[in-house]
Amino acid sequence: MTKLKWGMIGGGEGSQIGPAHRLGALADGRFEMVAGALDHRPEVGRDYAQRLGIAADRAYGDWQDMLAGEKTREDRIDLVTVATPNATHFEITKAFLEAGFNVLCEKPMTMTVEEGEEIVKVAEKTGKICAVNYCYSAYPMVRQARAMVRAGEIGKVRLVVTNFAHGHHGDATDADNPRVRWRYDPAMAGVSGQFADCGIHALHMASFICDDEVEKLSADFASTIASRELEDDAMLNFRMSGGTVGRLWTSSVAIGRQHGFDIQVFGETGGLRWASEQPNQLIYTPVGGRTQVIEKGEGGLYEDAQRLSRVAIAHPEGFPLAVANIYCDLADAIAGEVRDGLPGAADGLRSMAAVETAVASAKADGSWMDARPPMFR
Ligand code: NAI
């Protein structure tokens, strides 16, 4: 099998998400890394790319050079990953889609709803894949949860409760650290801090498992560290189009919580619980019955969960392999096999609509507001 050619923008040495993309993309031998503009400092990026084995002529100094260089090559990349800071996603993603490349963009896909709608339109027009890295949705046991909901194993979903609350920005004496401060500065982060950073993962997960979309929401935002302009804690109530009641808490000041992402789905005949810190187990309770632990890799899982379980039962599979599952689905999609679990530009746009709506609702003392992107109303 010929390997697909893959390039990355951002994700340079020392970055948070870069290693997960490299481990994920290369895990199954379906992609090879042949191009990159990995750092905002051209020389540093070129040097690192070559140390990763990329040929000198494809170790680019910036994304514009990479676009120009790749566009004209016969062996151009099949997929580019955009793993730069948020404010650059729109421009880079749009330019690569327009030039006919498939893109995997980090979340949040854009900074505004207008930009999100434009990406959806460009992806439709060009026919290229625009995926968004909601990688938690690619854990095998999250796929199992969605398949169980779809199969009616917990009945009609009444309630979904999700948290993405950690404590890593809870130290007020570290609030001025540049790596922390930018996240709460509107000039760098946009209209929302913690909700746009982590809350949208939780909201996407709620939609993903419930197989439904958020219709309206009410939000309460707080900056618990007073110097922060943007929120470091948020609580949302929401309703999905099928009537499911949703609750979401996201925080970066919840000291003692580590990754802090979990979700519970309560249906008429059962409940499910999944947590990112124990990703290989799905907890299932049928109404009136005993609580059961469903393990990744055990027999009888739904096809999507089985397909994406890599190592034998009881061996932990973690974050990079969830990212690898996104790349697996992308490789299939590039080969023409549509995977409906792959998060796309519409999901990225829905998140931006939720962010802008939550900001507006919080400013209006939690008024309920339509959270759907205008183009999907
Ligand atoms: P980071 O600050 O740790 O690293 C950013 C990297 O991008 C650095 O190597 C930097 O030199 C490079 N860079 C910046 N501007 C660039 C440009 N114009 N061209 C090329 N390279 C450039 O940031 P981090 O935490 O890795 O986040 C990157 C993106 O990934 C963000 O959008 C973030 O929201 C997202 N992310 C997603 C996660 C997920 O679970 N899906 C988890 C962590 C981050």
From TrEMBL:
State one molecular function term (GO).
glucose-fructose oxidoreductase activity
Q: Which Gene3D superfamilies match?
A: Dihydrodipicolinate Reductase, domain 2, NAD(P)-binding Rossmann-like Domain
Residues of the Gfo/Idh/MocA-like oxidoreductase N-terminal domain: 5-134
Which residues are in the GFO/IDH/MocA-like oxidoreductase domain? 142-272
Q: Which UniProt keywords apply?
A: Oxidoreductase
Query: According to the UniProt entry, what is the EC number of this protein?
Result: 1.1.99.28
A Pfam family assignment: GFO_IDH_MocA
Q: What class of enzyme is it?
A: oxidoreductase
**Which PANTHER family does this entry report, sorted A to Z?**
CONSERVED EXPRESSED OXIDOREDUCTASE (EUROFUNG), OXIDOREDUCTASE
- Can you name this protein? Glucose--fructose oxidoreductase
Q: Which organism is it from?
A: Thalassovita autumnalis
The organism's lineage is:
Bacteria, Pseudomonadati, Pseudomonadota, Alphaproteobacteria, Rhodobacterales
Gene, per the UniProt record: gfo_3
